[in-house]
Amino acid sequence: MTASNAKADLLRYLQEARDALLWKLEGLSEYDARRPLTPTGTNLLGLVKHVAGVELGYLGDTFGRPYFETEPPPPWWYTRDPGPNADMWATPDESREQITELYRQAWRHSDRTVEALALDATGQVPWWPEERREVTLHHVLVRVISDTQRHAGHADIVRELIDGSAGHIPAGDSLPEGDPAWWDRYRDRLERSAREASDG
What is the rounded CA–CA span in Å between residue 24 and residue 115? Predict the structure, then answer.
């Protein structure tokens, strides 16, 4: 496999996760896009904001290609003092359009980094301990894909909790065909199985 093919493969899996995350926001009210649905506050717009920062940091600053070069970074950026989890939720003055557009700009910025550098090019992760800061572009790309796919999975569950929508890509949901009654029976079967296993 050539390096260019390897890059194309890596970017394809990253782009699938990017698209899935934004798709999960479609058709939702502002409240539903932002509201926390787990005890730790997981919410859809916050996931998008977080992965935008992940890409801009790991595929920007790490390789000397900062995105926030001509303008100050947002208050939640790692070089400032944002407080815990500031990149995991949207404040009322941060619009959905601002966050999703920042994410799309992060894609373009990241893709230019990948195009410009060899997979074995090295960079320094500024927020990591000094002794392990040096990384390759390949390492960082795998890390970013893993993180983005993980959060796309979170988004699948959160969206299902909001309105029952399920599936990981717009072109096909990869779920068995079944009407609501079928899914109710399926879920009941799983519940009975879980209870039987715990009682046994």
Answer: 28
pTM: 0.91
DSSP-derived pairing of the beta strands 134-136 and 122-124: antiparallel
Count of CA atoms in the C-beta half-sphere (13 A) of 146: 7
Distance CA 94, CA 144 (A): 24
pLDDT at 134: 98
Q: Where are the beta strands (DSSP E) in the chain?
A: 122-124, 134-136
C-alpha span between 14 and 43 (Å, rounded): 20
**Confidence at residue 137, expressed as pLDDT on a 0 to 100 scale:** 98
Query: In sequence order, which residues have a C-beta less than 8 Å from that of residue 127 and are 6 or more positions away?
Result: 57, 78
Q: Are the C-beta atoms of 44 and 24 separated by less than 8 Å?
A: yes
* Contact by Cβ (8 Å): 45, 25: yes
